[in-house]
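2 proteins. here.
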Amino acid sequence: MPLVTTTEMFKKAYEGGYAIGAFNVNNMEIVQAITEAAGELNSPIILQVSAGARKYANHTYLVKLVEAALIENPQIPIALHLDHGADFDICKSCVDGGFTSVMIDASKYPFEENIEITKKVVEYAHDHGVVVEAELGKLAGIEDDVKVKAEDSSYTQPEEVEEFVDKTGVDSLAIAIGTSHGAFKFKPGTKPQLRFDILHEIEKKIPGFPIVLHGASSVPQEYVKIINENGGALKDAIGVPEDQLREAARSAVCKINIDSDLRLGLTAGVREVLNQHPDYFDPRQYLTVGRANVKAVVAHKIKDVLGSEGKAL
């Protein structure tokens, strides 16, 4: 099966009350772990690449790794998505370079300018058979090149979404309802709570339209504990409660982004192995364990959070 766009994925997810996992990839082990878990659970997936990942691993290497995953897992639909494209040029580069979906994130600009930039990307992408995600509202937190202070973040305004979607022709919309980038999403002692009231207002404004949640990692405390017990220093790492993400997946949310949880699983495995075996220097010895952790994270998300198990059939 070749790479697909997210159009059919999102239609089925919306109607079926589940969400597609959009997992960030940076290297071979992460690609393998995600696609092996999805293949075993017959789940459609989105493999997404950030600007930071392209700088680290090179666009061509990442595309070829995904193509290899398609050969190994021909039974599941896989989309290749650009995460947080900063401008038209990077989106064009990914459209021309084999991606089936791109995100243009012009949320830092005023509303009308966001529309103008997004529309330009949509027109080019659609002419080449590629779908587009855009963003309204700004999420706090840090992830690769995305850095937004809490005081500069803002919830998506429901009254703006219909005009934005109509004028841009975008295919899906990332909204800000209380999620946050990175592993340090919330202050200690606070109870994270997504703004489902905003989500439901947006659903009413654009019924049937696929919504995306960024910054949706839950920061598994078992991996935080392993990291800290083996030389790490992750203090007050707190994520989004998974029961809230499952509730979101039952609504108009068709795509949920997960990155930090994968990083935590991989790092926990590597730290634990190297701490227990200081004589090890073969990357295969510690990356094998890290990869297994990432696979376990993805399998758990598919089965217990996203609800996408068996939806590839």
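next one coming up
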Amino acid sequence: MKELEYLEIINKTISDSSLLGDDCAFLKNYDLCITQDTLVEGVHFLLETTDPYTLAQKAVNVNFSDLAAAGAEPLYITISLSLPQNTEKKFVEDFYKGVEKAVSKCGAKVAGGDLTRADKVYISICAIGKKYNSVQVSRTNAKPGDIIALTGMHGSSAGGLKLLLQGRKEPEMLINKHLLPSARIEQSRIIMQTALDSNVKHIAMMDSSDGLGDALYKLSTGCGYLFDIDFSSIPVDEQLKTAFPDEWKDLLMWGGEDFELVFCIDKTAFEKLDKTKFHKIGTVSANPITKEIESVLKQEFENKSFKHF
């Protein structure tokens, strides 16, 4: 839980922490969203299981996923790439070919960055995007009666990582979900437009980069209300169940790196969404989170969530 402790220190130390807490900071004066993520060799990826071309696309999409969770269209990225001194030129060439493929899909541009020497590969990307519309997005915006929904399947990326670590090459779909995730940019645009058309001014949304359980916990504690979740309604790939019959439930809830969108939205707006692409998994209840319940939830979160340190 060191990450939460460090975040608490940061929030207390900075004189104005009003822009902290969501997937992106929303710069209201400029109608822009900004985010930054870092991938570290040995922590977030292994060069034995990926290549620079694929790795670059994942690094970009990790940041674009944050923009999608903020209801923003990607515009620009800057890249800080730190490499060992003996890194071959082809690594850099292939890496930036991957960057180009990722940004070209949504019309974003590379606007600069930095190159430094390091003991291993570090990739830090800053992404800037523009809000699709005036609908306000935050982890704290859920309200009683809202539909809890998500895009895509969960657990697949974590299953793919386990396969790679075990030296297995099948099912290929699970491995690809881990190595080459997609940011749900188009789905974000649809959610934002549907909310606007339904006269919904606020939605709660984040991505499931640290796991579905992590996202549900943060959205619930963010708004202060309990979530009623129907576990059986959560989409899961049958290949994950087959590959990990005893672990798939934990992988689904806590595996992480699926980079799907998890959101809470007014029922009237949700009814207008395509149910084959946006899946209802529960409802925000009218029961507030008491101190006793919060303690239980925090303990479960501490036991199951991804440890960044």
